[in-house]
Every structure is written in structure tokens, then in C-alpha cells.
Amino acid sequence: MTDKTISPEKPVIAKNQHAANDFNDNYHALFEQATDAIMVTDFKGNLIDVNSSLSTMFGYTKEELLQLNVTTLLDPESIKIKPIQYDLLAAGENVLNERKMIHKNGQVIYVESNAKKIIDNRIMVIARDITERKKVEDVLQKSEANLHTIFNTTDTIYVLMDQNFRIISYNKGAVAFAKKELRHGIKISEYFIDYFPSDTQHTLLCYMKEVLKGKHLKHEVCYPQPNNLFNWYHIKMFPISNGDNNVYGLMMAASNITEKILLEQKLGDERKKRQQEIADAIITAAENQRHEIGIELHDNVIHLLASATLYIKMAIKTETKEHHPNMDEAEKLIGHAIKEIRSLSHSLITPFIEAKRLSEALDHLTETISESSKLVIEKEIKIFDEDDIPDKLKLTIYRIVQEQFGNIIKHAHAHKIILKLIRDTENIFLSIKDDGIGFDTSLKAKGIGLINIRTRSSLFNGEVNIISSPGNGCELIVSFPHKK
User: Fold this and answer.
1) Which CATH entry fits the domain spanning 21-129: 3.70.10.10, 3.30.300.10, 3.30.450.20, 3.30.1330.30?
2) Which long-range contacts (CB under 8 A, 24 or more apart) does 360-364 make?
3) For the segment 403-456, what is each residue's pLDDT rounded down to a tens digit?
């Protein structure tokens, strides 16, 4: 009987063969499922293997492609300019290229390729279709070329960006702007948004995204300078298209408008000064007239009535009441008239003629109103330095308080008034609140008294607000801009 000996090498060979088959199966599965287009060629350019993504990219079936040489897919003119670098591939180097290639239907395809030698002296090429990207670049480059003459012959700052907000081109003005205002250099392919402070990047990004939707946006922005000054810029952002509905990038154009802003501010200051002069003249004329009327009432009319009273008293002494039974009543009425005219003349005469302070004039006014009307008046005057407040503004505040007190006495049926005068670094605030019957502001906020208050306030750019409703009293709030 003969013993059959099994060679120990055979199981190992079988095992290796099985592993190789598994590797090939896995390789082909990955090769076929790859989203990138892949081809394998020999060193003569003959196609040995391709995946379905490559077939889709060029419009051929796999069987058709395996009958072709890679030069069939390349644009003839571009292959002359940039031949396939077989020498570098043979040396084991990776070769990266952008290639102009041809679809089966004759359409041009731009491809980004990565080629490398693999086993058995074969070459694997991984290709990616970049046709759309090339179109975008072409549009932007044309825009850049068309704008170069403008770029270099204007003071306007220009920055051209792609859809990802990477810088494609810029002019000298942009270099100066980035250095001066953003404290940054400017380079091609960098993200323009990264140059800006982090607290403004989100807003800028929102603007730019809107521009990529086809909108034209503009706004003004300022950058602080030494000595509390600012540089102002007018910013325009608009989409770059090719006459179609596609947006390929955007342009930012910025103009330095600092001189314009300063001129507007100067004109505004001059306008404010003229307005102040007009207000001063109006108030002076009105107060002079009031003062003259008040003096006339006090010095003449009251004296005439006082003389009439003396004559009545003399008549009472010499005549019997039977002949003139109403003499006493006439004397009382004239006395009452003298009191009313004296009060009126005092209200007409400017309270600052004798160099009274506003707070003192308001004290005197509230005391007079309290005594004559039995109203309870509470005052709250907080940290009120009035030395730098113009006399005309102080007089306006006084007249508004006087006017509103009169409105309350005539119409509100109130028992209590709260008067507040407060000043901060920017404004002077006046508040007069009563506990009267109130009113509907939409119906009764146009009376003569309130019109007078609004008119006086407007002379000093004051803002008037009235808070009231039926049964809930009324609060008059007036704010005057006045910096310390």
C-alpha cells in the first residue's frame, strides 16, 4: 500500500489565492462605487479599466471606453500645449492637472485630474468634473478684466469675490482700506469676511448672502480714528452675473464719504444755530409783548380801577344806601377785578427780569397756584445744574409749566399735581402729572394750550408726549436735548 503525501505548500497557495480574489472583489466594488470618475491606463494611454462615474462623465458605455485611448477624450489643442507627463508618472510622482476634455457629444468638459503609477506599470487617474467652476471663474475673470480700467482710475475701493467670499481681485484703494481700517493685509483667495472684527462678521455675512440671491445692497459704516473722529464709508454690494439668472460672485465698492458727512454735520450745526436764533427772536418778541401788556395792566389799568374804588368809597360816605343800594357790591367787584388783573400782569411779566433762577421761579409759581387754587403740588427737581442752560430755554420750560398748570386748573378737576424736572448728560426732562379726570388723547390733544406747549417745545427741538385716558389723570412729558 502506497502512502500519498500532501505537499504543505498547496494549502498556503490556495489560501493566498483566495485572499487575492477577495482583495480583487473588494477593489472592484470600491472602484465601481466611487463617486469620482476613475480610469486605469497603460503607459501608451490605452484604457484598461473604467468605472461607471467615468462613463457618465463622458457619455460612453464602459465597453466603448475600453476600446479607446485616453487621447481620444482630450482636447487636441490642449494636449499639444500640455502633453501627458509619462516620464514623471514612470518615476512614481503624482501628477495633478486641469484638463480640457471632450464629451461623446462634442461638448467641452473641464476636468481636474490626479494621476499616479500603480502595480503592473499601470496608471490610475482620478478625475473630477470642474466645468461649472471654470464657468464661474471665466465670468469673474471677464468681470475683473472689464473693471480693471475702473479699478485703477478711481478713488472707489473695489473687492471682487467668488460665491464663497474668497477674494479674486482688488484695487489699490482696497489695499489702503484694509490696512488703515481693518489693520490687515489683503491677498487673493483669502476669505474677505475674516478681515473684519468678529462682532460685525455675522451682519456682513448676511448682507453678502442676500447679494448672492441677486439683491443690490448699500449702507453706511464708520471706523473710529484718533481724537474721537470717524472715517465714514458708503458701501455698495452687487452680484456678478453673465447676463443670465446665475450669480457667480459679488463686488463690494466702498467710497470714503467722510468729507460729505462732516459737511452735512456742519450744515446741520449751522441750521440748528439759525433755528436757535429764530427761536430766540420769537421768544424775545413774544416776551417783550407780554411784558409790556403786563406792565400796562399793572401800572395803568389797576391804578384806574383803584381810583374808581376811591370814588365809590367817597360816594358811600356822602350818599345814602337808599339812593345807591349797589355801591358795596360794586366796590367788591372792582376789588376782585384788581386782584385778577394783578395776578394776570404778574403771569405776563417775564420771571427772569430780576435774574431769578428757574428753580426759584418755579417755586414762586407753585406757591401762587397752590394758594389761589388749593391744589396740592409736589416738586421733584433732581441734581439740576442750570448755569449752562440758555435763559430762553429756561423761560420756555417755565412757560410750559405755567401753561399746563392753567390747563389743569381749567379742565382737569384735579386735587394734586406732581412736577418733576430732571437732567442727565444728554437731555432735560420735564414731567407734569395730575390726578384729574383725564381725557382721550386722540380727541382732545389739539387744544390751544397743548398747541402752545408743542410750539414752544419745537423751538428747542423738544419732544412732547401726553399720557392720559378718561378717569386716569394726565401726564405731560417734555424732553429737550441739551448736553452738559
Assistant:
1) 3.30.450.20
2) 361/398, 362/398, 362/401, 362/419, 362/421
3) 899 899 888 999 999 999 998 888 999 999 999 999 988 776 566 778 888 888
